[in-house]
Amino acid sequence: MSHKTNRQIFAVPTLLGIATTLGLGAGLIGDGGWDGAAGLLLATPLIVTGWYWWRPPVSKARRETRSRPMTRSA
Fold first, then answer.
1. Any alpha helices (H) in the chain, and if so which ranges?
2. Residue 44's closest CA among 22, 29, 62, 59?
3. b vs e for 26-43, b when ≥16 Cβ sit within 10 Å of the residue's Cβ?
4. How open is the CA angle 50-54-56, to the nearest 5 degrees?
5. Which of 1-5, 16-20, 62-66 reaches the highest mean pLDDT?
6. Mean pLDDT of 43-63
7. Who has greater pLDDT, 50 or 2?
């Protein structure tokens, strides 16, 4: 099992939180282009969630080969 740093674990959730906050702020600030930007920023977490929800799961064999260290054969 590979160990991940806190930065690796929380990078994407932090970016999604920032996008949501900016989207809410853009929606409150103005009209026109601001509304479009707000819609895109607020849709980002939904799109990412949907992508990972509908993505097929990684097979056990593939998961095991990814976690093994790479070795060179002579």
1. 6-29, 33-54, 60-67
2. 22
3. bbeeeeeeeeebbeebbe
4. 145
5. 16-20
6. 84
7. 50
Token pair, residue 35, equals 């509304």
Q: What is the DSSP letter of 74?
A: -
CA distance 73 to 67: 18
- 12-49 residue pLDDT tens: 999 999 999 999 999 999 899 999 999 999 999 999 99
**Residue 31: both structure tokens together:** 């009209």
Which residues, other chains included, contact 12 with Cβ-Cβ below 8 Å and sequence gap of 6+?
48
Closest listed residue to residue 43, CA positions, set 58, 22, 62? 22
Instruction: Determine the average pLDDT of the residues in 54-73.
Output: 68
Residue 39 is encoded by which pair of tokens?
A: 């819609």
Distance CA 41, CA 49 (A): 14
